[in-house]
């Protein structure tokens, strides 16, 4: 940003800093004029019936200031039209400098989630079967929020690393809707405790949750549920359904997805024995 300000001040005027030492033009703010820019070093042309001074930026001439002829003295002005022309140089630089500032100072954080199916607790399984559940699945959840400091030069330069400690939530997203499972607590980037949704008390361990087959699998067609997984930056969609023998099956069908641009993910798909190809998801 310092470089952008230095470049702008050295090449462009504001309405109160128009001045030229050689031409004897004083700035309207009556302060000591800047050493640059100087109109006498620019190219003077007639532009829209006014004498106008131009500077060249990468072979493109940009009007900087024009004069209004008067009876006793001339005045100098940056009109809206001139400002729009100057914006062709200034705005791309401002966007670039702003993006660099964001990239340098906003941290790169990676959230890793691991959901592992476990053998159901015998007491919970027995209770669920008594209540008519056909099947019970039990899962453990672990999550880590990591600051990828090697991607953040300014943080790395000062030896700073973020280790998040604070609240979080475990959400189930299904059918475009979110359902909150429980509150989480992070310490130094690790999920270390959760709030039991039944008892309402905090438990100092990673959460374990259960669900029946009906909770986990929706629909009645071959592909009855979808789960998205992330592994080392790659995205995989897994489908859950029922085969010809009536058994529950699981298969990856949209695989290898990765970011290819702002809000866009591309990958491949494979419906065994039917169709394969590539897919793309765009943020709307």
Detailed description of the structure:
The protein is elongated and about 100 Å long. A hairpin with a 2-residue loop joins β1 and β2. The strands form 4 sheets. It has a 5-stranded antiparallel sheet with strand order 12-13-14-15-16, with no helix packed on it. Strands 1-2-3-4 form a 4-stranded antiparallel sheet. Strands 7-8-9-10 form a 4-stranded antiparallel sheet, with no helix packed on it. It has helices at 2-11, 80-105, 122-130, 153-157, 213-216, and strands at residues 43-47, 50-57, 60-68, 75-77, 109-118, 136-147, 166-174, 177-187, 190-195, 202-203, 208-212, 223-231, 234-242, 248-261, 264-271, 275-282. The protein has 284 residues and is α+β, with helices and mostly antiparallel strands. Mean pLDDT is 76; it is low at 212-233. It contains 5 helices and 16 strands. The protein starts with a helix and ends with a strand. It is 19% helix and 45% strand.
Keywords for this entry:
16 strands, 284 residues, 5 helices, single chain, five-stranded antiparallel β-sheet, four-stranded antiparallel β-sheet, alpha+beta
Total DSSP helices: 5
**What class, by secondary structure content?**
alpha+beta
Trace the largest sheet across and list its strands. 12-13-14-15-16
Alpha carbon gap, first and last residue: 32 Å
Sequence of secondary-structure elements: HEEEEHEHEHEEEEEHEEEEE
Integer-rounded radius of gyration: 32 Å
Number of strands: 16
* Largest sheet, strands/sense/barrel: 5 strands, antiparallel
Tell me the strand percentage band: over 45%
User: pLDDT average, as an integer?
Assistant: 76
| Proportion in helices | 10-25%
The general outline is elongated
């Amino acid at each position: 940003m310092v470089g952008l300000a230095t470049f702008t001040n050295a090449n462009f005027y504001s309405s109160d800093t128009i001045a030229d030492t050689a031409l004897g033009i004083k700035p309207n703010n009556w302060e000591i004029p800047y050493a640059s820019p100087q109109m006498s070093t620019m190219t003077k042309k007639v532009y829209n019936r006014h004498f106008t001074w131009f500077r060249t930026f990468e072979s493109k001439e940009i009007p900087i200031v024009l004069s209004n002829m008067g009876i006793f003295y001339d005045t100098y002005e940056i009109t809206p039209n001139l400002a729009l022309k100057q914006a062709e140089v200034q705005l791309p630089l401002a966007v670039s400098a702003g993006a660099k500032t964001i990239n340098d100072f906003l941290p790169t954080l990676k959230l890793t989630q691991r959901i592992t199916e476990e053998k159901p607790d015998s007491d919970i399984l027995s209770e669920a079967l008594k209540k008519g559940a056909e099947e019970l699945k039990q899962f453990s959840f672990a999550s880590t929020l990591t600051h990828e400091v090697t991607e953040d030069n300014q943080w790395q330069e000062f030896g700073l690393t973020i280790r998040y400690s604070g609240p979080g939530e475990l959400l189930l997203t299904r059918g475009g809707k979110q359902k909150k499972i429980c509150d989480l607590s992070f310490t130094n980037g690790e999920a270390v405790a959760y709030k039991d949704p039944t008892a309402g008390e905090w438990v100092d361990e990673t959460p374990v949750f259960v669900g029946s087959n009906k909770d986990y699998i929706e629909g009645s067609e071959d592909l009855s549920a979808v789960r998205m997984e992330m592994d080392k930056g790659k995205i995989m969609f897994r489908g859950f359904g029922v085969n010809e023998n009536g058994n529950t099956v699981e298969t990856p069908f949209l695989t290898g997805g990765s970011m290819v641009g702002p809000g866009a993910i591309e990958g491949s798909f494979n419906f065994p024995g039917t169709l394969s190809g590539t897919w793309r998801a765009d943020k709307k």
